[in-house]
# Entry
Amino acid sequence: MYENFYNLLLPPFANTPNSRFFFETEQHREALAKLEYVVRNRRGFALVTGEVGSGKTTLTRTLLRRLGSEVRACLINNTRVSSTELVKMISSEFQLDLPEKPDKATYLTAMRRFVEHQYAIGRNVVIIIDEGQCLSIDELEELRLLTNLENETDKLVQLLILGQPELRAMLKHERLKPLIQRIAMYTHLGPMSFDDMTKYIAYRLVRASNERPNVDFSREALQMIYQRSSGIPRVVNLVCDNALLVGYSRNTRLIDSSVVRRAVDQMMPNFNNEGFGPADLGEDATLGNAPDEMIQPTQEYEDGRRL
Ligand SMILES: Nc1ncnc2c1ncn2[C@@H]1O[C@H](COP(=O)(O)OP(=O)(O)OP(=O)(O)O)[C@@H](O)[C@H]1O
Ligand SMILES: [Mg+2]
# Structure
């Protein structure tokens, strides 16, 4: 809607896990590198936890894009299923040849045959489970059996589980000790730092534009966005999208604190933090009605990396 006004081709802050917009903060880069390492080096099992909206699903899409055709990958997003259904989903993703009602042994035999064949033709098999916090203990145990598929030198199935922080508590269950012991890599995605968020915003604007986006964010506006979002990308997107809409309706390409304040007022209430009273803004509250300090767009946009 406002894209032309800001010289953009696409909505820059759409809340979809589009790998085209993947921005590598240090923690996202590290998590991606670790997952890729576990897959490429057949290390078996990796676990990623992360706050709600911190970028887990986006990470899985980016990883899938990076893994080439020598990797047979299966991505499971819907984990609110029984362990039998989970097995069925994996089997159908890999097009395993199974009887109508396979028992666990039949399934594991078919899986073994499949992964051994893939190994023989030089392909690696990876199962990526998103929304891991919704898995039951039974399902987690079922998945563990897959990590047992190995030959003398290599793990034949790589298993990556991503989920919200409560997944950590679930994994403490006594029955899951053998799974925990198999974790080759663990990482946690927290909120972005203020610096990362600033670069993230600039990056998404650049990625969504043809040449250069025609919009500036003031430092105070960025501070407000950080305060409202706590550095969580999904919320940053929401605030920025609303702010661009407010800017457009006011016919201004300067996103300053008054624009962000209006944008935030139109959003869902922040149940953790009542809004932007003077106390919330700390030192900035003393700015009163002084005009916002504008950040240098060139500098910010150059910081935003192009793919
Ligand atoms: N590193 C990133 N680069 C670009 N965009 C990102 C990044 N991380 C998150 N996002 C954006 O934030 C939104 C939320 O991210 P995502 O859906 O990946 O979070 P999540 O951790 O899977 O959340 P949930 O816990 O609800 O499943 C995405 O739609 C995406 O637009
Ligand atoms: Mg997700």
